[in-house]
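Most newcomers find our protein records easier to grasp once they have seen one. To make this concrete, we reproduce a full record directly below:

…
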Amino acid sequence: MRVLVLTLSFGSGHVRAAEAVARELARQAPGADVRVVDALADSRALFRACYVWPYWVMVRRAPALWERFFNARVARMDEHTAPAWALRWGCPRVFKTIAEFEPDVIVAAEVAACELAVLARRAGLTAARVVSVITDHEAEPVWVKPEVEAYAVADEDVRAQLRSWGTPADRIEVCGIPTDPTFNHQHDKKVTRARHGITDGVPVVLLMGGGMGPTRMDEVAAGFCESGVPVQIVAVAGRDARARRGLARLRAAPPVSLRVLGWVEEVAALMQTADVLVTKPGGLTLAEAALCALPVVMFDAIPGPERRNAARLVAAGAGVMTNGAQETAAATLALLRDEHMRRRVSACAARLARPEAAAAVARLALGDPAHARRVANTRAQSVAGRTNG
């Protein structure tokens, strides 16, 4: 069996989710040939300039403009994020890979990845089943395609959205957001603390920015540095070189310490060591935090899915949404001072955990017999209902 897991590296969340699904596919089907492809990695430079860069400019410099753009796309029930010809021209390597690899299944872990998979089917390059994985707590009409056999969604709200846009109920499975298996076992906190120079007795704040930004991590960290409150900050800038430079310019003085990291693989160990996570509300990051029962203070939410992610966490009592760097630092310090509140928020976060999400997505992609029976029964009942009617 050949499985192509297709994603686009808008931030790190989609890529990490795709890799988590690929690992679980390989575990469940050891003989399968599983490949992960980032469509942006080999796309044409002009395509990236026209498709990717305007997005980053808007969310960095004009988030209100991006909000209007996204809301208009939903209101118009747009069927694509870019014209079909632009996607075909801009990502030729994807279509070449699909034609040569001849996958049995394409798992699309980003909305444009879903478009690319469907375009390949319509062009006759593949007859592969298409399974779409939505890694936020909000979708958009672009996801809805008749060629998609199954949708793995984060929660019932996303399921309801897809249903309202015409997706048959038997094609939607609530699986949660797939996360790396390293989050499913306990890491040695002493080892993690020793590796990063973290001392006992002083609270630890893990500051993250979503892998590629955009974010004001430096301004948030500066708020901690200026507070004079004992706290150890571990800032993970990911691949956002701009954020890392801003953080590197800060000078923390006792009782505050600041350690700046780039891209790291040990996110699970760091989350399990931290007392509070301060982050942009990406869907995957919040799912990871829930697995670690980690209270979350959120900032710089991108209009659209990130704001919906944040609202869901706040409604569940598992996190706090803030506006501005100073408010973010103040809310975090308040949470650190109130141990009773922190424990309550931690318990709420734990209730959101979906440790089996990646396994559920993989079963869906591989054609889990139980799922097939459920689909068959649902369709049979639907037919019977129409007949009786």
